[in-house]
């Protein structure tokens, strides 16, 4: 079974083309997942009180059709069979029976005080709706081709409005930051995005944003002040 939440897309949730951007789509599917946790337990806060947290490792979102202002959509999320230290969660967004978006993600369960990975068996997920994982068209884990030249295209300092309960930038904000660096972004639509999250970014962290391109694929890497990679991302775009 899949947990679902209904949304009516607000005008202020869309861009200059009246289309919901990638960050907003991330917010819909994240909210569906959080509502599942809130209703089926353990909740995100209950885990946090146990000094445990889910940390996003990788996500791949495929967008089959745009989402417009005032669309009435259903966002679904569900846990998938998982093992070891890899917790799998999937998502989809539907409008009038049509699947607009599909996503698969990989999460790590970590000890917030000891900063170590925990096996998925360390929490009881038996209450969560579960179903089979989505097989995305492209790999969930992003790998940037090493031969591509990169250039610095911007910087970003993590703001208070970017962070969540963990004190790090919420994953829904990263697409906004990198999409703003796309050349001629207003005339492009993102068809697929994959993000790998090796290291988190805390409040006040200054990120350098590097970009490379291969045809209709844009690759981004954000780097923290300590020189560690914060995220790596692949965007596949088409002209509007």
- Gap from first CA to last CA: 35 Å
- State the share of residues found in helices, binned by percent: 10-25%
Structural class estimated from helices and strands: mainly beta
Number-wise, the strands total: 11
The geometry reads as globular
Order of helices and strands: EHHEEEEEEHEEEE
Offer a concise description of the structure.
The protein has 240 residues and is mainly β. The N and C termini lie far apart (35 Å). A hairpin with a 5-residue loop joins β10 (217-223) and β11.
Word description of this protein:
The chain is 13% helix and 39% strand. The mean pLDDT is 95. The relative contact order is 0.17. The protein has helices at residues 22-40, 44-49, 174-179; strands at residues 3-8, 52-63, 72-79, 87-95, 98-111, 117-118, 151-157, 188-196, 206-214, 217-223, 229-239. Strands 1, 2, 3, 4, 5, 6, 7, 8, 9, 10 and 11 form an eleven-stranded antiparallel β-sheet that branches. With 240 residues, the chain is mainly β.
Topology, element by element:
Layout: E1 3-8, H1 22-40, H2 44-49, E2 52-63, E3 72-79, E4 87-95, E5 98-111, E6 117-118, E7 151-157, H3 174-179, E8 188-196, E9 206-214, E10 217-223, E11 229-239
Antiparallel strand pairs: 1-3, 2-5, 2-8, 3-4, 4-5, 5-6, 7-9, 8-11, 9-10, 10-11
Provide the descriptors you would attach to this structure in a database record.
eleven-stranded antiparallel sheet; 240 residues; mainly beta; single chain; 11 strands
